[in-house]
Amino acid sequence: MAISEPYELDGVTVGASELSIVSGTTSLQTITDDGVYQLWIDAGNMAKADEFKVRIYEKVEGTGGTKKVVAAWTLLGVQSEVFVTPTLILINGWDMTIQKIAGTDRAFDASIRKVA
């Protein structure tokens, strides 16, 4: 099985608008490139009062439907470890995002890794 890194962020500043990790912009995406994916985030720049929300969206079926949150996590305060999601099978229209909920805008590195 081939492993790749189709999407990454390199020091992209995240603020109050939800940011697509796929595009590195606040324009949310609907990716239909199927595979087994995992998100890695280096949140080492976060400080005590910071709070960021990480979300993964997907459509349940491919002939329409609405992209909805599949999983969400909150990163709160100082982060000394890399944040890693479980692997997910994504196929019908997905995106991975990060958004500041409280605190200061911060720069993040992130990597979306794919198996298959």
Description:
Strands 1, 3, 6, 7 and 9 form a five-stranded antiparallel beta sheet that branches. The chain has no helices and nine strands. The protein has 116 residues and is an all-beta fold. 0% of the residues lie in helices and 53% in strands. The relative contact order is 0.41. The protein has one domain: Jelly Rolls.
* Helix/strand class: mainly beta
Write the H/E string, N to C: EEEEEEEEE
In which range does the helix fraction lie? under 10%
Round the Cα radius of gyration to an integer and report it: 14 Å
Spans of 5+ residues with little confidence (pLDDT < 50)? none
Principal-axis shape: globular
How is the CATH topology named? Jelly Rolls
Helix count from the secondary structure assignment: 0
Determine the oligomeric state from the structure.
single chain
Using the coordinates above, name the CATH class.
Mainly Beta
How many structural units, i.e. domains?
Answer: 1
The CATH architecture category equals Sandwich
Number of strands: 9
Strand percentage, roughly?
A: over 45%
User: Distance between termini?
Assistant: 6 Å
Instruction: Report the average pLDDT across residues.
Output: 96
Question: What about the largest sheet?
Answer: 5 strands, antiparallel
